[in-house]
Specification:
The chain is mainly beta. It is built from 14 helices and 44 strands. InterPro entries: Beta-barrel_TonB_sf, Plug_dom_sf.
Length: 892
């Protein structure tokens, strides 16, 4: 588990010197990476890593999870969190992407309209989250999580939610080589959080509470049947899948090339009917002549995701275990229960036998051209142009025989087939002119950068109903359009021009200052605020080079740095600042089809601003005795000009419009620590740990907006209150007189979702050609609402519940049942055994006997153990999984 953390950015006479901490197999070393002139999107820049950015290498990623890129990234950066994982678990179809870096920065309702997503970049090109996380882990060279204020300022209106950048593997000079990579994965569901009642226990609870399934005879029959169906194991399975990648590469000083093919043909999930398959092809060529270099990277990917799941894992957990799903003829019943039962239960397994499905096909082309030219005298030019084309085809079919149509007549319009087609086409180009020089103890440089981005996004969807048979699952067999879902289509454009001016100065490698100014003009912005300016400034003091510390040989490095900067994000929709109309096609009083009326949707705000993030940070980086490396950073970030609602005069014809207002602050502390515990020839032991503490608070909240927002809340949504966290958990107080529990007052903030401390720790051991590593992640403090315990107390015993329902103290009568009670808000501590890996690298002689140049084997176990202080069900939509992966890396 290699740990790399950026320590500082200094400037030498010819290049930016990047000192990074490296712990690999217990051996720590500071090194300067090879400067790559590959450009990034708006602005173009070299592979600089600012003081506050986090670098994760390919070996780190594969050590924690060689299958799931999202889990590996979130492990190494504790400041990353999301809102979906606890429910969707390890769903391979759902995917990642909606995540926050260093806390929530806006209101929850804004998150529902436009989820919080960092800017995702692959080799400088802007891509969406789906493409980023579908990238093969074996293609990743490093991941850079941009959090430094100066780094974020360089990406303008797209970076307030963070920047996650991927650098992919490129061929190196050498003779023709064939590389083969194989991953064999065994995966099974982690159902340890489910402790459900058995059939006999549930029937006894039904009788104890004076309920019945129907007649006394049917109740007795259920008892006598002896059925005890394990519904969770009926749905889940242990799967084996495999992935293959072949790369042919080589080159010399002038030309480098690589051809790549990858396939994952058996991407079955642990839930029946869930599959994900990937096919990828790639070609890379690079030409270099003296100081000029040009390269082209072309990839094609096809991803197929299928799901036949009807309902969720939680639905299966609630299904009574005394029901018999079999029809006695080798099939499944549509509904379950005795003929005299008052309640008939849907059979979720029956749905898996139908043709119902949700299929998504994605076809992606990615082409990236990069060039660089050294002009001499300290000047250089770098450029890049990329093209991305994605086609996404989604088909959703609900069989006419589905249980959801059980209450409808046979001649009604049962069965539904929906089609959605979307496409993304982007052009992205950038160029920069850079100067670097030095004189005496001083080094300095400047960069003038410009770029353009053009994106076109299309989507259309429609659905038909009325399908005669389960075997006729296509849109052509439907009788009419779905009356509940009208055909829908939209198209929007993103045209952005940006420029950046950067400069830096360093004296004697002790004092360093750097500044960046970035300007964006974009069609994403409102007409009155179409131009956005951002800035970033940083300063660093290398205390370790001062005279009064030069005799302290045990101090290898001691650097203090500070930075401040702004970045932006566009949360508004086009309709929020541009007049939009709706055609009155459903107006029953309009019969002239050639004169369809239209009306303005609502009052736009042409002066609507983007959301601005003001980032401030102070960091201390230290290295002692070549064995201990520490980085501690404090940050204080303010999100301003959030989306709000203003009251309008009645004379305008509208009650309100979208505006800007309010402020959300995130402040916290992050630390990264690496230590070499033992280092001798042939044996080394090292350890690492990192952690993040964040506090989220609403600093300003407009009164009218707060009243409007809280009044329109749906069940389960949290209100907004100035001074509280955006992630606050609200619950109603309650009183209990021994027999009855009653609500006592309005809901109040009873906890917060973010933990007091979240982080990881692990150990690495190297012994000869063997490597061993173990890693854990944890969270301490914070709260969560225990929905499982709530269901235990107020759920119907006719549906299966957690076994705690058998204890009378958990089953209370309740008058005026509130949605939230404070006692269900519990402290949330958790520990997860993230990964354990054993690897062996064969020597050249042993590999040569197998006609190979290099050979390595790794066995990795991921998410093998989890414990928490909150006894509740996890993965209620899709289960969490445990995996064991055997990886083979061979070079011929």
């Amino acid at each position: 588990m290699k740990q790399i953390y950026a320590l500082n950015v200094c400037r030498s006479a010819r290049c930016w010197l990047h000192l990074m901490l490296v712990v690999w197999c217990g051996v720590a070393a500071a090194k300067s990476p090879v400067r790559d002139s590959a450009a990034l999107r708006l602005p173009v820049q070299t592979d600089r890593v600012a003081a506050g950015d986090l670098v994760i290498t390919a070996s780190q990623i594969r050590a924690v999870d060689p299958v799931d890129l999202w889990k590996a990234i979130s492990f190494y950066d504790p400041s990353i969190s999301n809102s979906w994982e606890r429910e969707h678990g390890s769903d391979p179809v759902y995917g990642a992407g909606d995540m926050t870096v260093r806390g929530s920065k806006r209101w929850a309702r804004d998150e529902a309209v436009k989820p919080s997503r960092p800017l995702y970049i692959i080799d400088g090109a802007l891509v969406d989250a789906r493409k980023f996380f579908d990238t093969d882990i074996n293609d990743v060279r490093q991941i850079i999580i941009r959090k430094d204020p100066v780094s974020l300022a360089q990406y303008g209106i797209r970076s307030a939610d963070g920047v996650v950048e991927m650098k992919t593997q490129k061929p190196v000079k050498g003779p023709l080589k064939v590389r083969y990579m194989f991953d064999g994965i065994v995966e099974w569901a982690d159902l340890g959080s489910y402790d459900l009642m058995s059939a006999s226990e549930q029937l006894a609870l039904i009788e104890r509470e004076g309920l019945t399934t129907g007649s006394a005879a049917s109740m007795q029959q259920h008892k006598a049947s002896g059925k005890n169906v394990d519904w969770l194991n009926q749905l889940t399975r242990t799967v084996f899948r495999h992935r293959h990648k072949i790369t042919v590469d080589g080159g010399d000083d002038n030309v480098k090339y690589a051809l790549t093919g990858r396939i994952a043909p058996s991407g079955k999930g642990v839930v029946e009917g869930v599959e994900k398959e990937i096919l990828g092809l790639g070609a890379y060529i690079e030409y270099r002549y003296k100081s000029f270099r040009i390269s082209n990277d072309l990839t094609y990917d096809k991803t197929a995701k299928n799901s036949k799941l009807f309902g969720t894992l939680g639905d299966y957990a609630r299904t009574p275990r005394w029901l018999d799903p079999d029809n006695g003829h080798g099939g499944y019943l549509k509904t379950m229960g005795h003929e005299e039962d008052a309640v008939r239960f849907e059979n979720p397994l029956y749905e898996l036998t139908l043709g119902s499905h949700n299929e998504c096909r994605t076809y992606s082309i990615f082409d990236n051209v990069r060039l660089s030219l050294d002009l001499g005298a300290g000047f250089s030019v770098n450029g890049r142009f990329s093209f991305v084309r994605d086609l996404i085809r989604t088909d959703t079919y609900v069989s006419p025989a589905s249980v959801r149509y059980a209450s409808q007549t046979t001649d009604s319009y049962t069965g539904r087939y929906g089609i959605a087609r979307s496409s993304i086409q982007t052009y992205d180009g950038a160029v920069d002119l850079t100067y670097r020089g030095s004189r005496g103890r001083s080094s300095y440089g400047a960069s003038l950068q410009a770029g353009i981005f053009s994106g076109t996004y299309n989507m259309e969807s429609y659905a038909g109903v009325g399908i005669p048979s389960d075997k006729m699952g296509y849109i052509s067999f439907t009788k009419a359009y779905d009356p509940d879902t009208a055909p829908y289509a939209w198209r929007y454009y993103d045209r952005t021009v940006g420029g950046t001016l950067s400069a830096h100065y360093s004296y004697d490698e002790r004092y360093t200052v750097a500044g960046t100014a970035h300007l964006d003009r974009s069609s994403m912005l409102a007409p009155g605020e179409r131009t956005a300016l951002f800035y970033g400034v940083s300063a660093a003091w290398n205390i370790g080079r001062e005279r009064f510390l030069r005799r302290a040989d045990w101090i290898d490095r001691l650097t203090l740095s500070a930075a401040i900067g702004t970045s932006g994000a566009v949360d508004a929709l086009n309709s929020d600042y541009v007049v939009t109309y709706s055609s009155n096609i459903d107006n029953e009083y309009v019969y002239n089809y050639y004169l369809v009326g239209a009306s303005v949707n609502f009052m736009p705000n042409p002066d609507l601003k983007w959301r601005t993030l003001v980032s401030r940070s102070v960091a201390l980086q230290a290295e002692f005795a070549h064995a201990l490396r520490l980085r501690v950073e404090y940050y204080n970030n303010d999100s301003k000009d959030l989306m709000t609602v203003d009251r309008l005069p009645l004379a305008s014809g509208y009650r309100r419009n979208v505006s800007n207002g309010g402020r959300v602050r995130n402040s916290g502390l992050e630390y990264y620590l690496n230590a070499t515990l033992y280092s001798r020839p042939g044996l080394s032991v090292s350890a690492f740990t990192s952690g993040s503490h964040n506090r989220n608070r609403i600093g300003e909240l407009p009164g009218f907006f707060a009243a409007w927002y809280n009044e329109a809340l749906s069940e389960g949504e949290a209100p907004l209150s100035e001074g509280e966290s955006v992630n606050a958990i609200y619950a109603a107080e309650s009183s209990f007189d021994g027999t009855t529990e009653r609500a006592a007052g309005e809901a109040v903030a009873a906890g917060r979702a973010e933990p007091d401390l979240k982080g990881n720790f692990g150990v690495n051991v190297t012994w000869g050609k063997w490597h061993f590593g173990a890693a854990f992640d944890y969270r301490i403090g914070g709260q969560t609402f225990n929905r499982t315990l709530y269901d235990v107390q107020f759920g119907s015993p006719l549906y299966n519940l957690d076994r705690r329902a058998l204890n009378p103290k958990y089953r209370r009568a309740f008058d005026g049942e509130p949605v939230r009670l404070q006692r269900f808000v519990e402290r949330f501590d958790a520990l997860n055994f993230s990964a354990v890996q054993v690897g062996y690298v064969f020597g050249a002689k042993a590999a040569g006997k197998l006609y190979m140049r290099n050979l390595a084997l790794y066995l990795t176990g991921s998410n093998l153990f989890y414990c928490s202080g909150v006894d509740m069900q996890r993965g209620t939509v899709y289960p969490y999984t445990r995996t064991v992966t055997l990886s083979l890396r061979a070079t011929f």
